[in-house]
Structure formats: C-alpha cells, structure tokens
Amino acid sequence: MKVPETLQNADRHGAVVRRFEYDDGALIAVDFGTDEAVTIDIVESTAIVVFDGRHLEFELPAEAEDVSVHNGVVTIGE
Questions:
Q1: How does pLDDT run across 5-16, given as a tens digit for each residue?
Q2: How far apart are CA 53 and CA 77, in angstroms?
Q3: Residues 32, 72: contact at Cβ < 8 Å?
Q4: Are 55 and 48 in contact (CB under 8 A)?
Q5: What is the Cα–Cα distance from 8 to 51, expressed in whole angstroms?
C-alpha cells in the first residue's frame, strides 16, 4: 500500500508519516502530535482529517480496509 501523495507532504503541517510492511499487509501511521482533538471522517474514498484548526483531505489507498484515529495518530491498514 502506497502512502497517498497528500500525506507524503503532511510534514509541512507538523505531522510524521511512517509506513510499515508486514507479512500479512501494510500499515500507514500519521502522527499529528499530542492533540486529542484530531478527528477523521470518511466520505466515499476520501479521508478528511481535522487537527489544530486545520484540515487535510486525501484519497484513501484502494487497499485500505481499516482507518482509525487514536491519541492524534491516524492509522490506515490493509
């Protein structure tokens, strides 16, 4: 699973993006910091992340099966 292009540039917003490859799939983790108020909405194949009074939209990878946010970290898993 490739990191969406918009997320590849998320570091401009202070986020840290990591991709992990496992035997049974891949995981993308985007750490937006310690802001507990990070939220994510999914509209069809578009994810909208709201953090620090800003928002970031990106197309989910076709392989994405699980999208969640916990403690300011958005995870996208296969």
A1: 888 888 777 789
A2: 26
A3: yes
A4: yes
A5: 17
pTM for this prediction? 0.86
Instruction: Round to whole Å and give the CA distance between 24 and 71.
Output: 25
d(CA 26, CA 12): 24
pLDDT in tens, 22-38: 999 999 999 988 667 89
The amino acid occupying position 44 is E
Give CA–CA dist 78/75, Å, rounded.
10
Tell me which CATH code domain 5-77 carries. 2.60.40
Domain boundaries, the chain: 5-77
